[in-house]
Every structure is written in C-alpha cells, then in structure tokens.
Design a protein that fits this description.
Layout lengths: L1 H15 L16 E2 L2 E2 L3 E2 L6 E2 L7 E4 L1 H7 L14 E5 L8 E5 L2 E2 L11 E5 L2 E2 L13 E8 L13 E7 L7 E9 L3 E9 L8 E12 L17 E15 L2 E12 L7 E5 L1 H7 L29 E16 L2 E18 L8 E3 L5 E3 L5 E22 L2 E29 L2 E28 L7 E18 L2 E2 L2 E2 L3 E21 L2 E12 L17 E14 L4 E13 L2 E8 L2 E8 L2 E16 L2 E14 L3 E4 L4 E4 L12 E14 L2 E12 L22 E16 L2 E10 L7 E6 L5 E6 L4 E9 L1
Parallel strand pairs: 9-12
Antiparallel strand pairs: 1-2, 3-4, 5-11, 6-7, 7-8, 9-10, 11-12, 13-14, 13-45, 14-15, 15-16, 16-17, 17-19, 18-44, 19-20, 20-23, 21-22, 23-24, 24-25, 25-26, 25-27, 26-29, 27-28, 29-30, 30-31, 31-32, 32-35, 33-34, 35-36, 36-39, 37-38, 39-40, 40-41, 41-42, 42-45, 43-44
C-alpha cells in the first residue's frame, strides 16, 4: 500500500513541478456555467432531449462537469444532490444494496422480496433490485432525479419517483486515461479507460474500461485476524461501450458491464437486549465462549469475529437502436439483460462465538439471530422497450410498448436460540434453524402514450396528457424448513391491471419565467411475502395521485436560477415493508397500511456571483398525514387503526444543501478550483410502529451534517500528449458520529445499530493521453 501512495505522490509532484505561465483572469471551468450565467442542462425525462428548465415536473439534473467535480461513480454517491431524497448503504445480508426514498416514499428492504417504489435506470434499462445497485459506473454523462409519481412514462413502481443515469458514448478521438485514488482505510482505486475513436470510415467507436477497488473496513475486527473487517471491499469491474453511426438516420449503442466483488457487510452493533436475553447470553464467557458485548455508545468495545467476505457478481448488457425516419417519426428500442448473484454469511450482532446451556443441560454454540451459512440470492432480468416519438404540427408525442421478465431466487439459513427459564434462575436455550427457500417470478406488459400540444396561436402554452396501461403477473413458490420439518408449501399467483394518467399545463410568461401545474398517478404492483408456512393472498397494489405546481426561473441575465415546487400526494393501500423476527424466524412483511397524504415543497437555486464563483443549494420538506393505518392486533386478532402512532420510517422530513464552486486561478489550459458542500438531514425513525418494534425510539437515524470539499488542479500539461488532473478530497470533514441504520428484532428482544464512517481523506490523480 505504501508503494502505491509513493507512486501516486510522485506522479502528482511531477505535475506540480511543471512550469506555469503567467496567471490570467479567472474564468469558469464548468461546461454548464459560462460568462453568460447558468447554462442549460439537457435531460430526457419525457423520452426526448429538452432543456431542464422546460420540463414541467420537479427534476434535478446533474451534468458531466459537476459529476466529475464530485467524483460520482455509483448510486451511493448521489444522496446529497437533490432535495427530499435519501439514499444510504444498506445494512444486513447484502453488500451491494441501498435504501432509497424520495418525498417520503421508499423502502427499508434492500433484497428481492418486494418491488421498490423508486425506479432506477442506467442508460434506459431498469435496475429493479436495490440489492444490486452498488457497482462502479464509468464516465457518467448526466443524472436525472425525478421526484413524484412517474406512472405514464416510467411505469410500475414509480410511486415515489425515478432516477435516470446515463453514461457517455465513446469519444470520436483515440484516448487513454488512467485514474488512481488512495485514501483513508487503505483505499486504493484504479481505473483504466481506452477510447478507440472512430474506426476508419465505419462510423463505429468503442470504449473499454477496467476498474479495481480495495479498502479496509472502517470498523476494525478486534477478535479475529482471519476474517474481514466489516465494510471491507475488494472488487474488479469491466465496462464496454460501442457506438455506431451506421447511417445519417440510424445509430446504435451497445453497453456491457460486469462487477465481481468480495465484500464484507457493514458492522451492526448490539445495542439493546431485554433482561431475559441479556441474562442468558451473558453466561457465555463463564461457559468457555466469547464475552457478550452490549453497548449503545459509538463503536464501543468492538468485537466482530467470523465475518467472512461474501461473493457478489453483477453484470448486464443493453442495446439501444434509433432510427430517425423524419421529423415526425423517430423509432427507438432499448433492450436489456441483467444478472446478479450473491453468497454472503452475516454476523448480525458483531459478537464472537457465544456459548450457552441448552435444553438438555449440555453446553453448546448459541445464536442470537445470525446467518452463519452463506445466504444465497440470484436474479435475472430481461426488459425491452419500443418508442416512437416525433412532432406533427403543434403536437409532440411519444408512444411505446414495454415488457419485463424477471426471476429471483433466495436461500437463507437463519440460526437463533430461543431462551426460556425452566426453573428460577435456570435459563436454557433451544437452538432453532429456519431454512427459507423461495423463487419469485414476475412479468409485466405495458403500453403508453403522452402528447404535448403547443398551440402556435398562444405562444408559451403547453398542454400535456398521458396514459399507460400495465398488466402485471407474479408468482411465488416456497419450500421452507423449520427445525428439520418442512412447512406447508407457500404458493401464490396473482395478476393486476392498472391505468395511470398524467395531465399538465405549462405556460412560459417570458424567456425567464415558466410556471406549471400537473396531476399524475402511478401504481406499485402487488406481491407476496417470503417466509412462514404459506402466503396465498399476498398484498394489494399501491395507488397514488399527486398534484404539483412549480415555477422555473432564470433571472438577472441568467445569473440566478430558482426552481420551486409544491405538492400534495395521496396514497391508497400504501405498501409498508417491515422486518419481523420471532420464534418462527425472521422475514420482511409487506402490509397495505391504508391511506396517507404526503405534502411538501422543494426549492433549488444556483447563483453565478462572478465569472469564477458559483453558489448553489436546495431545501426540501415533506409532511406525512396518515389517515388510516390498519394493524392486526395479535392480542385480539382484529384490525385496528393506529394512524396516530405511525412514524415516517427511514425518511428525514427536512433536507438542505448549500455548495460553492470557486475557480481560484487559471494558467492557459490549467485551472485550480475548489468545491465545498454542506448538507443537512434531520433524524428519522427506522420503523413505523413502536408497538411492533419496542426499541424504535432509541435506534433512530441521527441527523446528518455533512461537510465535504474537493480541491482540483485540472489539465496540467506534462508533455505533448499528456494531461494530469489532481484532486484532493475530504468527506465528513466535521467527523460526525452518525447512526445510519438499525434493526429491531421485535419479540426476540434484541436491537442493533449501525454507524457511518468517520472523516475520510484522499487524493486522486488522472492521467489523460
């Protein structure tokens, strides 16, 4: 590792030793900002390329320059970029998953049990599984965060919103780039990217990239040197892009990516136990086992033993073809295939090997609730979308067909010990094994259209309407075993039909001011829970209608951009996913909670204060109002309305961000710039009901105060054909101790908490040829 650091610093020193010419007047280096003010960002949120300021919905667009300044290379890096958006790395039996929410709607389950209400797309291909999203993405062109229901153009499971990520096409000219990063916790990342340029007169160009990443876990394993530190990463990634201009009217883009990783889950600290559990497991050390460690304090008495690295493989390919028939008709097809597999054992409580007295009086290994045997997950997905877009007279239109076929399999072995007091002071444990094995299949068919009318007689007016018909079919097959006894087969099959619609009116009062109002609907497909002895009924679809109004402005000669939006969103049969653990094992249960209204507002602003200083920021607020939340009371076996008890789980109600980009100096093509960002999110609950999760008030997500900075020296010429870019960065500069996750194991009487990383520093060098 020291050799890598020396090599990197040597390269940087070479660059800094290059003579600099006389300093000229500073100027903006971002392609999205020029001396005229805030520049345009082109997005495809309505299946066509258009200026973000003309799109009548609440959308945040991040262009290539800002992506490079922030060094964004995965979905996990975009948490602080948009208001009312929450994205965190998931804890538990996955190392490549995220927990995401937009405007209060999202999920807490980062597995394949249920569908997510936020659709995530890469190059137009749906990434439907949140446990397969953390992988290296090469050379990003733009990111679009669409807030609110997107049911007509993006379909099922967009009741919260959609995130679109696009990679750059191969360059027209030959180029080679090497990017190396070293940082805290022995981080070492390298990426080699080769652009072939256009090959002869073929119109075909290609890009190939290879990435390697390794990093120690930010929590150190103090009990065992033979297994990984929690959060440790080691991955290899490959990326291929081929672009073809076959003719003036026909193009194609082929993309392929693969990531192979051996990672360890992040650390879960045992924070709370009931008296019975604590009395039983605290005997471990006296019986020859490891000591029991329970603490609510920040990373207090870290233990962690027997945490092996898991194996994860994520790969996929896509083909996009476009035929420009005429201005009235463009045909486009997007076909994608993706696969994911993971084998991962999990030490849920960060303990050593615990020993306890069993029911027969003998002493043996005991478990709180662990996955000591590798949990297996497999997913394969095929999707295809056909689009026809164009302009006829005063009408812009899009018409499309969509198909999705998905198969997800999971096999997990849960081991836990049920504790009982057989006589006063005599505690015994019964080791329990629950093997959960299921296959989930889903198919979805959709047809959609959206038409925008821009009457020539009323300059600045646009009226848009859209419809989407969706048919979903799902099937769940289970073969679960409890303590060696096969449970009744859990079979469930169902299908649902839905029509979603959109209506919006937009009026541009002047080149500087646009206002819009829209109403839109969406739905989230129903489904089935895995676990237990059967699940024939499942849960119903979630339906939503949203009303939104917004204002988009470019003021003061385009030096001040302010975008505002306010919304009211009504949900019916809102799906709530909740982890439930008890004597029959643990699983994620989804219930249709009832009726809830989310209301709120968002504001985003960018101010070009001078040719070399730009300030931007945003605020967001969401307010939930649960009208009906039905809960099955286990004491009476009846449904009761507990709407007045419900917490908004995993979602901060207030978000804010402010940042500044300062172009400090420029020497010919070389520029020195500084980017500083501060973001805030208030604390949030982990689970919706305290009566189900008694430790819920104590394991809340703490508020987030994130300060980061990046100092970049760009385009240092060190030869006739080589440039260097050097970037020093710091994250969590306030060194905030923040709880980012927790699990309440309910009736088992246990709860864990997960802490985020400390301050992180690093240095990146990019050599371009």
């Amino acid at each position: 590792m020291h050799g890598k650091i020396i090599l990197l610093l040597s390269v940087a020193a070479t660059a800094l030793a290059t003579p600099a010419v006389a300093q000229e007047a500073p100027s903006a280096t971002s392609s999205e900002y020029d001396n005229a003010g805030v520049g345009d960002i082109i997005v495809t949120a309505r299946k066509k390329a258009e200026n973000l300021q003309n799109v009548p919905l609440s959308i945040t667009g991040i262009g290539a320059q800002e992506i490079a300044e922030r060094d964004i290379s995965s979905i996990g890096n975009i948490d602080n970029l948009a208001p009312a958006v929450f994205i965190e790395t998931a804890a538990g039996p996955t190392t490549s998953g995220v927990v995401a929410n937009i405007r209060g709607i999202g999920g807490s389950d980062a597995t394949g049990v249920s569908d997510y209400p936020i659709a995530m797309y890469i190059d137009g291909v749906l990434m439907s599984r949140p446990n397969a999203l953390l992988f290296d993405m090469v050379d990003l062109e733009r990111i679009e965060v669409l807030r609110g229901p997107q049911g007509t153009l993006f379909g099922r499971n967009t009741t919260g919103g959609a995130i679109n990520i696009f990679t750059k096409a191969p360059a027209d000219e030959f180029g080679l780039e090497e990017k190396v990063t070293v940082g805290t916790d022995n981080l070492f990342k390298s990426r080699t990217t080769l652009n072939t340029g256009i090959l002869g007169d073929s119109g075909i160009s290609a890009k190939v990239a290879y990435s390697h990443e390794e990093q120690d876990g930010y929590v150190k394993n103090t009990l065992s040197q033979g297994t990984a530190d929690p959060g440790a990463r080691n991955s290899e990634s490959g990326f291929l892009a081929i672009h073809g201009d076959v003719s003036p009217s026909f193009t194609f883009d082929l993309r392929a990516d693969v990531t192979s990783a051996r990672n360890a889950p992040i650390w879960q600290q045992l924070a709370y136990m009931n008296d019975l559990q604590r009395a039983y497991f605290s005997q471990s050390e006296s019986l020859g086992g490891s000591p029991l460690i329970v603490s609510q304090n920040y990373r207090d008495k870290v233990t962690v033993a027997n945490q092996p690295r898991g194996k994860q493989t994520i790969w996929g390919t896509s083909m996009t073809m476009q035929l420009d028939v005429s201005p009235a008709l463009t045909l486009k097809s997007i076909t994608g295939y993706r696969r994911f597999k993971e084998n991962q054992a999990v030490n849920n409580f960060g303990q050593g090997e615990l020993m306890g007295r069993l029911t027969d009086g003998s002493v043996g290994r005991v478990y709180m609730f662990d996955y000591p045997d590798p949990a297996r997950a497999r997913d394969r997905q095929f999707s295809s979308e056909l689009q026809a877009t164009g302009t006829v007279s005063d009408f812009d239109y899009v018409v499309g067909l969509y198909y999705l076929d998905q198969r997800y399999t999971s096999a997990t072995t849960q081991r836990f010990t049920l504790v009982s007091e057989v006589a006063p002071g005599d505690l015994r444990g019964a080791n329990t094994v629950f093997f959960r094995d299921y296959v989930a299949r889903a198919k979805s068919y959709a047809a959609f259209t959206q038409v925008s009318w821009k009457p020539a007689s009323i300059d600045g007016l646009e009226v848009t309407g859209g419809l989407r018909y969706t048919h979903d079919k799902k099937k769940l097959s289970q073969a679960n075993v409890y303590n060696g006894y096969a449970l009744a087969p859990g079979e469930g099959t169902n299908s649902w039909d839905n029509v979603s619609w959109l209506a919006s009116v937009t009026y541009r009062f002047s080149p500087e001011i646009l206002a819009y109002a829209r109403a839109s609907t969406a739905y989230r497909a129903g489904g089935f829970d895995a676990g237990g002895s059967g699940n024939p009924n499942g849960y119903d679809p979630e339906k939503v209608i949203s009303y939104e109004a917004g204002l988009k402005t470019d003021l003061l000669d385009r030096r001040l951009r302010i975008n505002l939006s306010a919304y009211i969103t009504d949900y019916k049969d809102l799906q709530i996913s909740q982890f439930v653990a008890g004597s029959s094992g643990g699983s994620t249960k989804t219930v249709n909670a009832g009726k809830v209204t989310f209301s709120g507002f968002e504001a985003e602003a960018t101010a070009v204060l001078s040719d070399f200083l730009t300030v931007d920021g945003s605020v967001g607020y969401v307010h939930p109002n649960y009208k009906t939340y039905l809960y099955l009371d286990p004491a009476t076996d009846t449904l009761i309305n507990v709407a007045d008890e419900v917490h908004l789980a995993h979602v901060p109600t207030k978000t804010a961000r402010i940042g500044a980009a300062w172009d400090i100096a420029q020497w010919d093509d070389t520029a020195l710039s500084l980017r500083v960002d501060y973001s805030y999110k208030n604390g949030s609950y982990t689970f919706p009901l305290d009566r189900v999760n008694p430790y819920n008030p104590y394991i809340k997500h703490t508020a987030k105060n994130e300060l980061s900075a990046r100092l970049t020296l760009k385009d240092v010429n060190v030869g006739p054909s080589m440039n260097l870019t050097i970037q020093a960065y710091g994250e969590n500069l306030l060194n905030e101790k923040r709880r980012i996750g927790a699990v309440d194991f309910g009736s088992l009487g246990l709860a864990t908490q997960t802490w985020g990383p400390d301050r992180r520093m690093g240095l990146t060098v990019i050599a371009s040829y």
